[in-house]
Amino acid sequence: MKFYLGIHQPAWLERDLGIPLLVSHRRLAGRRTLPRATHPWAVDSGGFSELSLYGRWRSDARSYVAAVRRYAEEIGNLEWAAPQDWMVEAAVRARTGLSVRAHLQRTVRNYLQLRDLAPELPIIPIVQGDQVTDYHRCADLYERHGVDLAALSLVGVGSVCRRSHTGEVERIVRSLHARGLVLHCFGVKILGLARYGEAIASSDSAAWSFSGRYVAGCTPSHRSEANCLRYALDWHARLHQRITATTVAGPVRSDPEARAGTVTRRSPQRRRGYTHPDTARPASRPAHGRADDVAGSSPGRGARR
């Protein structure tokens, strides 16, 4: 499994660190000059902060495409970029005033817009949801609009990093993996990697920065380790060792419900009769909705579409 170190300092992209990095669009946008990346990296859209603060996306799809294109050209080595997705955490929905269904529709619609505007950019789709069935409803929505998720090199899984129950995330991840998707999980907990790491292709975390707030700085100029490169690299090295040890020993499987209903990974041509788990019991795929589920839905409040 590939693990991206989430960072707040774009200048670190220039350093020969030998590990993949994840940087937020919010840390890069508006900079006159950008660093030149020495290794592969990915850009996160910063959606949780954007929606939590403003209840909407302040930039439209064209503006975001222009920014990602600039990162790809000026920074280079860009592996993929997240879209302007809509997380479904209760705190976010309280700010947007929208339902889970509306957030799924807007997530899919934005990816379709970005893909149409810039098919050459490595922008990945993200599936969002609250319950397991929501994630599959989101995946179905992509497929109804011609996006074969199982044929793509990577699909993001959102709204999992703030969940306190690892077993809940495991059920989501394993059900999507059984659907044949190559997954990147945003900000999953270390315990989760030990339990279902073999079911995902990559993940990321900036948890080192949070823990570093409570550690005295390694130099007189550092009040804490929250922005210390040495601390971040040491944290990443320890995590990598733990992931490697788990891979050798075999994954921890402490939640039998998470394994119920999983199916052998199939090619896109053989998935038409697929069923996915809804907690412990299998359930049929959600019924297909109207074709205007995405295109016909109105934009978020104040969104510039």
TrEMBL record:
It comes from the Bacteria. It holds the Pfam family DpdA. InterPro entries: DpdA, TGT-like_sf. Residues 2-245 form the DeoxyPurine in DNA protein A domain. One of its GO terms (biological process) is tRNA modification. Residues 247-305 are annotated as: Disordered. This is DeoxyPurine in DNA protein A domain-containing protein. It comes from Amycolatopsis camponoti.
